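Retro notes - structure team

What went well: the batch runner handled both jobs without manual restarts.
What didn't: labels got mixed up in the shared folder, which is why I'm recording both outputs here explicitly, each with its sequence directly above its tokens.

Job 1
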Amino acid sequence: MRCMAVSQLSVVLSVGDTTYLDYANILAKRDGYGPQGKGGNGLLLHSAMAVDPEQGHPLGLLWQKMWNRQHREQPPAEETPKQKKQRLAKARKAKQARAFEEKESYRWVEAMTTIEKQVDTSTRVIHVFDREGDIAEVFNQLKELRQSGVVVRAAHNRALEDDDPHRLWEKLETQPIVAYYDVELSETKKRKARTATLAVRFCPVHLQAPPRLGTDSHLPVYAVYANEVDCPEGAEPVSWMLLTSEPVTTVEMAKTILRWYGYRWRVEEYHKLLKSGCQVERYRLAAEGMKPLLGFLCVIAVDLLRLTYLKRTQPEISADKVLTPVQIEILKAKSSRLPKILTVSWAIEAIARLGGYLEHRRKTPIGIQVLWKGYAKLQDLLEGWQLASQT
């Protein structure tokens, strides 16, 4: 999705996350890939995805960045312990001296500044980050941006303004509980699906700016603190400390911030779809060929995510809201029977049939890999259709 497409909204969420793409099995042509984690070798992908702030529907990609880390130089074979200590100290000093723009953490600020330049001035963009995005530069950058805001899950128990003896967590724990908020937790490897009830507190805070920012001014934000009550035995209770640029002066706005943060999982679903559905890690190409391919697959993955959400929440809307006229004509040509009204639900089932989905098993949920195969087949048919129309 292009940034121009969100101009119809007065507010849009930009949910950000970084994922690792592992290509450790590529043994030749490894230039352009880099180390990651436990012996991995591959690329890093940061995505900023537009999400509707009311319903949480994925709308498309606003910005992406792909890069690889550099391999470290091998230490000398006969290095002494003293030499190793000196080498590591020198490396730490060089790392600390790097400009912020050269660090991986700059991607959070880079997304904010880049997207603001691209969206219409009538649209306010709220960036939603997990704890990895809790860096002072994110809050400091808001001073330079006119139509951007943030909701960030706090990772650090920060010091507050000079005359406040509390730190962030202690400050919020002194606030009264003003409401309770239910949030649906999906099933993961570590927990079962459940409804969690959160006790909500909020208040304005002024974060102390770290010395590296070179400013004595504080970073004014609002904090929303939500803790799960009556957590099931053996389960880990939910606890969110959210920092936001948006004024939180009412219970309703505090609940809105919690709802917006809950939509952050959309971008994680997108990365999961990219790996399990589009299977981006199974390709074996040199990095210079892999990156253009990933650009193509990333667009397909976000389209598929958008379609699956619409089928789940708005199955009866017209298919022309999500597909082009030519795509619809192709699906009609490949369908043996057509309903009176071509809906999103019909379109997704038609795409799935291209991928091998069996119509007599309609009660079986459509798998993401079947949907991906069908969408890829649709793109091939679309290209053939376009070539035929030019002859």
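Job 2
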Amino acid sequence: MNNQNRNKFIKNSSNYVININRLLKNIKFKCKVDYIRSEKSSIIIVTDKITSALDLQTIKRYVKSSNKIDTNKVKTLCFPQSKLYLKIIGLPYFLNNSKTLVSLDIIEDVIKNNHIFNNINIASRPKIIKFLPKSDMAIIWLDVWDSQNKMNTKRLINCCFNVGKYIATIHRANMNPSVPQYKKCWKWDHLTYVCRVQGLKCVKCNGPHLTEHHEEFLKCCKANAKSNSPRLETKAGKLCFHSFKCINCKGDH
């Protein structure tokens, strides 16, 4: 609903509450509207009980029959939604036995083109992590919007689908408290509430300083003529060119 429609509807909201409740009473529904409020590009009609599909249809007809608004700008009414959490297992972390990581674009393309995800409203981009630190399999975390009765999500639980030669399975998941990479200690698949690091760490060397202060604090950027191979100072305004061991994979990058 556009701003003009929303403002007109809210202006007469007290009358609309009375009229909608009269309609619901006439068809012997026990649900009643408490109040109407606006939010962003929509209006929210708050009821005293969980509404049924018939309740929703009655309210929808009334909203669209109002002579105060442009009905062409009114989108379909829907039940309140909540965020639910799924995980997809059975897919490789690397593509075709190579060192190339499976990408979000591939996963999103699979979800977009698979019929089992029809009518599923994705809440955010999927997250890909390793099943275990030394595993070559992935877990795909998927957050979706669904009605409070979870009808769309329930039909996905334990469903399987093909991705190339692999068979992926969808499971229910708890709220995922991790982030792809925690930007305090820079560890992958790390639970934020159990991190024991007291301060921010450098993304380059994992030292106890901010990344932008790396050249100022670390010895590798200071000149040392007495070392086995004389070390030159990193010039002011230049980035450190030294390589470090990755905190996650221990590789040189």
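One thing worth noting from job 2: The radius of gyration is 27 Å.
We'll revisit the folder naming next retro.
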